[in-house]
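Sharing a chain and its predicted structure for anyone who wants a worked example. Both blocks are below, sequence first, tokens second.
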Amino acid sequence: MVHENENNSEPNQIFSLEQGGLIHMWTIFRSAICGQKSKHYTTVDLGQSYWGDVRLILVKRLRVNSASRSLDLECTCMTVFNQDIFVGTSKGVVQHLSSTSSTSIPNSYLSNTEELLSVKCIEHCPYDKEYFLVGFSNGQIKMYNRKREKPLISFAGTGNPNDPAVDVRYICWSKHRLGLFFVLDSDARLHLWDLCKSDMYPLYSISLQFAKVTNLDLSPYFDRNAVQSSFLVLGTSSGHVEVHRIRKELGKQSDAEFKKDRNKFMKYVSIL
């Protein structure tokens, strides 16, 4: 997965995760002598093609197992938020590491169930760094506060609590509406949730089996004050990419609407 620094003047960073739990932290570096016809190309190994001007420099390696309660974890997914690294595992635990410190508090987030689960995806709230969602192999989605080891709430991300055979594959939190997020399950069904309205049932559920959709993403959001359309990007098993415009009522809010939803969301998480 790719993590960009908030400060655009700094080099971007890439974090790569091995299934066995080894994390590689890379810096994207633009070489000053690249793009020039120089004799240095024959004597200096820049780790890139002779016509290139960008290369990756390995900065650090981190081991997930060093902070784990189990030595046989299989890592399934990863997300990075500032200096914090969150790694999902096959044991239903999200491991928490820091790219700048040897300790993280808490060092793990538990599923709080006896059921054997696997973490499928992790998605942070783009409006409040304290909260994130985790999708599991039994179709459940759990919300966590970064400061607490156990989940705040658990609900059926697929909309059907009686169908544990269907897992949550992707969660994408809307960059335009605070409580809104999209969920793709293993049956290629798309579920639209809005926590400012309900945490019991999704607003909509749509089958995408005809298109054999395997992953999804949302368009980036650069400026809250700019006029921007929202787009949903779907990837299919045949290698096609579909771009869909999201309806206006599910897109950008006015400042008054956003403030109202923020108050609802903060009240919602405060009572969990």
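Comments welcome. The two ends are 31 Å apart (CA to CA).
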